[in-house]
Amino acid sequence: MTENAIAAPPTTNKHLIRWVEKMADLTQPDRIHWIDGSQAEYDFLCDQLVKAGTFTKLNEKLWPGCFLARSSPNDVARVEDRTFICSLSKDTAGPTNNWEEPFVMRKKLKQLFRGAMRGRTMYVLPYSMGPIGGPMSQIGVQLTDSPYAVVNMRIMARIGAPVFAEIDKDEKRVVPCMHTVGAPLEPGEQDVPWPCNDEKYIVHFPETREIWSYGSGYGGNALLGKKCFALRIASNIARDEGWMAEHMLIVGVESPADKNGKREKTYVAAAFPSACGKTNFAMMIPPAGFDGWKVWTVGDDIAWIKPDETGQLRAINPEAGFFGVAPGTSAKTNPNAMATLAKNTIFTNVALTPDGGVWWEGMTDTAPAELIDWRGNKWTPAMTTPAAHPNGRFTAPARQCPTIDPGWENPNGVPISAFLFGGRRPTTLPLVYQAFNWSAGVYVGATMGSETTAATTGAVGKVRRDPMAMLPFCGYHMGDYFRHWLKMQRNLSATPRVFHVNWFRKGADGRFLWPGYSENMRVLKWIVDRVRGRAMGKETPIGWTPHFDDINWQGLDFPRATFDELQTVDRDQWRREVMGHEELFILLHDHLPPEMIYERELLICRL
């Protein structure tokens, strides 16, 4: 590496400079580029990616500022089986995480990273999760040899010169993130459009707050501010500092003006596992019969939640963009998402149309007559393979969302009044119910799950427990995580109410009983009314449920009988459900808070 490669870094932080030198020495890049975050730099990198064949520039008239990337077919999703939490003790990581002795793992990684950036540029990317300098924000620096990761991170986080200035204040701990695609180039060797390595490691060291990612250029494996930092490392920081890092969307529900012109706004945070309509819910448009109501989007994926000095929980969305699943997104299902991704967006693994646009399954009712699929091959509707990869993505700036909340970048966050949990459950779980209290609510979140679909491997119809939708993202023992949730309530002056929703209950004919999408607003309004102490509820063994007349049905002809079926609490089904809870608890038994066992006993007694 040439001496001047590290000339004049834009920071005075000697620890950072020394770390970059040390890592450059290990990985041996040809050049070092310190990211300033400017538009000119972004344009230059995108241009380089087009020249490399990684990006295709889309039709500027139809899709202004947009690009399409195609990844290697063996690098298309998060790799849960290659994701490790290397805490000092195996016990801390818990049975739901992959663990490896930190000393052994470091040795392994050092060998993999040695010379891994040869022939490439090392980008030094400083980023802030949350508004720069905000009291709830955190800082990371990612070293990467992937320009794809850099341009996506520019959309997903706040990056560049202002973050270096923040680091130079030396007030906040910086999380060091090492990333390489693991594909060094020999002199004169021709690069490929999507460099990656068959061997992959996504490794977190909770005690030293470090992230090392090897071999993948894709999504959550390569954009280290996302799941790696914002959830796995942040959940450890949050536990130590008394706040919460959650896999949750945040929305603000605003009522029409009353006779004094006053509007009321209520913020709720919701945790749903993947494929349960998170992005749709985060950008919901109220249905007929809800004139004057508005749903504001604060975030669609991650929430950092902290009590303020008065004991009120407040939340920020630490991200600056949406990294959403494209297939299934359409003007029908999510018009706000379609408006968000109409410009300045990076699409990955979707299909290319002949006029230089993009298409994916579900975008329109009929597929175009001819496309180039996500692998770069010719595609027609007669083919059995999908045109877009089921996990095809869009990376779009959050500020472009038509419903983005005016306070979404408030460094102090928005006040949270309710938590929602929910999964995909064809039976047993009603459309909506409210937990009796905080500890019962933690139990509801801890035992939530989804029935496996064809999209996930394993037996179809088996309930996969996904506590708080955090199973793949909690950076420590799940039992301790439940305890942290229980402990959080002690310092609160106002406890958010906890609800469980299930949009996916089916009737005897196998059809969904609830129309979902914008109609979910009807359930959301009852939740807001409960939080504000205005709505009645019916006591059942599992919690409070709405009466038919508690829901605003204006603009929807919904039969009372169907509603009753949706809200049925079948005691036999619930007894089986409670047996299912036991499986998870046995797994976590040595760290399980006693409250969880008491809540289960109480539920059994009520049933």
Description of the molecule:
By secondary structure, the chain is of the alpha+beta class. Helices cover 27% and strands 21% of the residues. The protein has 16 helices and 30 strands. α2 packs antiparallel against α5, α11 packs across α16 and α15 packs antiparallel against α16.
Question: In brief, what are we looking at here?
Answer:
The protein is of the alpha+beta class and 607 residues long. The protein is 27% helix and 21% strand.
Unreliably modeled segments: none
- How large is the share of residues in beta strands? 15-25%
Write down the overall mean pLDDT: 96
Q: Shape from CA axes?
A: globular
> How would you classify the helix and strand content by structural class?
alpha+beta
Sketch the major β-sheet.
9 strands, mixed
> What is the number of helices?
16
Helix content: 25-40%
Report, as a whole number of angstroms, the end-to-end distance.
69 Å
Radius of gyration: 24 Å
Number of strands: 30
Q: What structural keywords apply?
A:
nine-stranded mixed β-sheet, 16 helices
Give the SSE map.
Elements: H1 14-27, E1 31-34, H2 39-51, E2 55-57, E3 67-69, E4 83-85, H3 90-93, H4 102-113, E5 121-129, E6 138-144, H5 147-156, E7 158-159, H6 161-168, E8 174-180, E9 201-205, E10 210-214, H7 219-222, H8 225-241, E11 244-246, E12 249-254, E13 265-271, H9 278-282, E14 294-299, E15 303-307, E16 313-316, E17 321-325, H10 335-340, E18 346-348, E19 351-352, E20 358-359, E21 371-372, E22 378-379, E23 393-397, E24 414-422, E25 432-434, H11 438-446, E26 449-451, E27 463-465, H12 478-488, E28 497-501, H13 520-531, E29 538-539, E30 544-545, H14 560-566, H15 571-587, H16 594-606
Parallel strand pairs: 1-5, 3-18, 4-9, 6-8, 8-10, 13-24, 24-28
Antiparallel strand pairs: 2-3, 5-6, 5-7, 9-10, 11-15, 12-13, 12-14, 15-16, 16-24, 17-23, 18-23, 19-20, 21-22, 25-28, 26-27, 29-30
Helix pairs in contact: 2-5, 11-16, 15-16
